[in-house]
């Protein structure tokens, strides 16, 4: 698989990843999950590429500006990392 489909299962796995890292407060995890859900809706079913450059380009194509674009790029990197954590055989 070369991309991540953002689904309820993806969000749940992302939550587990963030909790297992042990470096985020529950409130921070909640914010990251909320942004991930919003990004999934903005992508309108398009999968998020596992390549960070391609993911950043896809987010750029949404026409976002400023803080929201930065948040989406950060969450994209976090989602890619969580996918690799859940499936360590996946390499960029």
What does this structure look like?
By secondary structure, the chain is mostly helical. It has one domain (about 5-85). It contains 4 helices and 2 strands. A two-stranded antiparallel sheet has the order 1-2. The longest helix is centred in the last third of the chain and has 21 residues, at about 65-85. The mean pLDDT is about 90.
Summary keywords:
two-stranded antiparallel ribbon, 92 residues, mainly alpha
What's this, in brief?
With 92 residues, the protein is mainly alpha-helical.
- Fraction in beta strands: under 5%
Helix share bin:
55-70%
Distance between the termini: 11 Å
Low-pLDDT runs of 5+ residues are none
Shape: globular
Structural class: mainly alpha
* Multimerization state: single chain
Order of helices and strands: EHHEHH
Mind telling me the C-alpha Rg?
Answer: 12 Å
Main sheet: strand order = 1-2
Structure summary, number of beta strands: 2
Mind describing the biggest β-sheet? 2 strands, antiparallel
The number of distinct structural domains comes to 1
Number of DSSP helical runs: 4
Mean pLDDT rating? 91
């Amino acid at each position: 698989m070369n991309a991540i489909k953002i689904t309820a299962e993806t969000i749940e796995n992302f939550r587990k990843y963030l909790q297992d890292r042990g470096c985020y407060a529950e409130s921070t995890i909640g914010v990251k999950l909320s942004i991930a859900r919003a990004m999934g809706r903005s992508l309108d079913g398009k999968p998020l590429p596992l390549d960070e450059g391609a993911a950043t380009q896809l987010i750029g194509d949404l026409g976002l500006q400023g803080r929201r674009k930065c948040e989406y790029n950060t969450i994209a990197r976090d989602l890619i990392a969580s996918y690799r954590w859940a499936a360590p055989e996946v390499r960029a």
